[in-house]
Amino acid sequence: MTYIKSTLLWIGVFWIHWAIAQNTISGTITDQNNEPLIGATVQIKGEATGTVTDLDGNFRLAVADGQTIVISMIGMESREVKVKGSQPINISLKEATSVLGEVVVTGFQEVNRKLFTGASERLSMEDIELAGSPDVSRALEGQVAGVSVDNVSGTFGTTPKIRIRGNASINGNNQPLFVVDGVILEDLAEVNTDDFISGDASTLISSSIANLNPDDIATFQILKDASATAIYGARAANGVIVITTKKGKSGKLRVSYSGNYSFKLRPTYNQFSLMNSAEEMEVYREMHDKGLINISTSVRGQNYGAMGKMFTLIANHDLEWGPGGGLNEKFLNKYENANTDWFDLLFNDAALQQQHSLSFTAGSENSNSYYSISFLNDEGQTIADNVQRVTGSARNTYFLSDKFTFGLKLTASYRDQRVPGTRNREFDPITGRFSRDFDINPFSYALNTARSIRPYDDEGKLEYFRRNYAPFNILEELSLNYIDIQVSDFSAQTNFDIDPTDALSIKGVINARYANTVRDHTVHENSNQAEAYRANGTQFIQDANNLLFRDPNNPGLNPTVVLPQGGFNYLDQSELISFYSRISADWNKSIGDIHEINVLAGQEIRFANRTESNTTGMGVIYESGGIVVTDPNIIEFFNQQNIDYYKLDETNDRFIGLFLNGGYAYKGRYVGNFTVRYDGSNQLGKSREARYLPTWNVSGAWNVTNEPFFKVSFIDNLKIRGTYGISGNLPPNASALLNLQADVTVRPTDVEPYLYIADLTNTELTWEKLKELNVGADISLFDNRLDASFNYFQRSGFDLIGTVQTSGVGGQGLKVGNFADMSADGFEVSIATTNIKRNEFTWRSSFNIGYTYDQITRLDFGPRLTDAIGQNGAAVLGGPRRGLFSARFAGLNSVGIPTFYNNDDEVVFEIDLQERDDLTSTLKYEGPVEPRGGGGFTNNFKYKGFSLMVLLSYKFDYKIRLNDGFFAQYTDFDALPAELVNRWAVPGDEDLTNIPTILDRGVAQTRGDISLAYQLYNKSTERVADGTYVRLRTVRLSYQLPQQWISKIGINTANVSVEGQNLALLYADDALNGQDPEFFSSGGVALPQPKMVTFSLGIGF
Hints:
This protein has 20 helices and 52 strands. The relative contact order is 0.11. Mean pLDDT is about 85; it is low at about 5-20, about 95-100 and about 745-750. The chain starts with a helix and ends with a strand. About 15% of the residues lie in helices and about 45% in strands. It is mostly beta strands.
């Protein structure tokens, strides 16, 4: 009893002493923006005693003088503070290093950068965002070494051509894999790389990234080599771009608003080398003298302009001949002086695009949330296009316990867009040219239409000329012929993270997505396209117009009209239903400061069901409530024209993958890593070897600066790394299955429908594969004021998929197969410097360059000559993926007609372009059509609240085929190149000029070889330009308003900026004559990237 009393006495004395020594401290915990953090933990170091901050970030805690408290919170860096007396403690926490870039986000896991062995780069959206650009992928241009971004079209919804380290496939899609918050983003439409430049309406849904709100994106992680992309296995040959979106932050409710007001500047004729209307009329008079334009050719002509209109009016007795039966110069003078500015008429002046985004974030110790909505309204670069887009997202993370985190993410977007009506382009295998019927693309029209044509007559009414044998006025046609596009995209995603032990983490993600697109092409009754189907005014036009119906059972009858009334409705619908799930176990163990071990294992399952339907409706009278007038011969007419009046395609894509990754680091000096995967797809051959693909990678790194012997003071970090592995790829539209298509016979006596073979089966069709070796080094110098990264790589692609020739026994001469191999090697250099950091002024620069040299080493089926001379180039053994070839120009002959060398070096007018042999001896190899090298140079200046950013982007080592400009027969509807002023005119000019003469009509119509000579001239060595360019891509000036100004009105942050994009080509080949080296004038829906000025406002509450 005495012992118990004594013990209690001592405890009481100790408690009194401890209580006297305690201080009750208080304080406030905030983030870097001075926002209070709710639910931050404040704990005495080494003890269980602690508390959490309240709604205002405040806390109170009894702590003995001299003790240390630890302040921590999920997503923030912990801080330790030693208590001195009872003074208030106000602490600001920084975002955790995982947010600030000390880890590499692969989409499957987060890896400490020091232990990462691959080649990757991380970009913050805040640093690279292009204000006013709705497609965030365009912001990568010039930012990362080895990443090429070609803006082949600036129309909303089209995707830029993005390549990481060149091309991994010859005929497949060389776009990188996009991963958003750990889930692979499926494309709405399967469009291969070559079709990006087509201008077809399908390219408007080629970019799934266009459905994302740029303000929702936090970072990009670009994974480039085999080690970085290995975890994605058979789909990673083209590289991976990992997008991480924003999450909620702990603390009270914060609201952010951003608004962008962008003005697109219209093109001008000063940029291009074209004749004005007076110069055109001079050429037309010469064409008249040579019989190319007269009363006969005009009345019969498919297209005509001012002079053709004059002759037609004379033929109809609505206009008199000129003096002496010559040209009516009084009539022609008003067109000669018209000099119509089609760019002014068809493009909006300073077209306004608005983007508004509003986000909300809040959180506590148990959960955090992020919500956003955005709205985009683009009134259109031209008078024929506009778009509205709405996006919404909700993301919640719940910290159910210390061991269990659960997340839920919902996203939705809707787009409503209008573009000019267009039909898909078609390739002419004879001439090697692409053409598009009824093309009314405003840019192509302004560039290719005579300026002597007027939009309005003398009375201010619409003036009509002839196109497709029917009256035509572009302003009317754009109002009567258009495509409406609606895109709806919804996804739901859930993820969980269970930590049974400190070392083990079990993670899972499930994503379901539904996307629907509708392309509704409306062609009104009075449109030129509809009227062309009714053009039968003369016997000659009836015989020449292939849009009239020819009865196969009565070949002697005149062609008849099958569209007596109404117009067209082309309806294309696409549906995507996808599901993705992944579960993985991630084990990390540190043994002292010596050993670090990581093992990741898991599986993923994916399916994507695509359904596409196409309907062609004919005879729709929109002006009468949509009444349909159907001709009984319409089905036979569709068969003659090879038109599917209804088509339904369903594709079910199934994919499964197993993966295992392991890593080991010894004292932070030596790092080793391996990855193995086993993937399977139902799109390949039936054999197990074809359908399943094992991939693997081994890599290592040496952190030299962690060595005890390394004592170089100015080197802060030096890491040498290397990797070797194999990955794979499956191009879109590549299938091993037998594809049978149903059709109906033309003649009524053949009542049975039939099947034809569209694609032969190939049971051995397997994945495209890529072996890759990469060695690199990362170095930081002078207190991290200079950072540099160097990479050298070799790539070897094999089993590449394309068309192979068969014996024909199966019923077809061609089928899809593994027909080629391709190798590549290249280098990448990135350098970032802090040039000046003094007082409140900072100047930082970054420079990057990447170069890839690719070469086809095996090709089982080569191209024809006509393929190789086209704008897209062709795959030729020993050349790049797409090499440009040219007919070898031999000069003009004595009468001004172009001549060429054949494979025997003989001077000829024509070459057999259908040949596949003697390609390299007949044609000249010019170079690749895709840039082999490129990069960017960025300078950032900051003084107090002002920031200035200037970005130059550049590309080099590629060739461009100039647009066709010279023909055996011209019409007065078409624009004429300014070079035609220097055309051959008299004997002896062949020694002074290389511009062909304008032929006499008799020669042009009777000598087919002469006509081909002009086609070859457009594809000759004379019509090639160097693609090298330097572009002033972005200039941005911004100002962060001082906190003391805005806090008085309840605003936490505010900034304003002005930004110019695509401002100038600082260098380009003069031979381009204004043609943008990135843009292919393919018509359809394609428009060049405009010059744009954007004013932005950002506010945080």
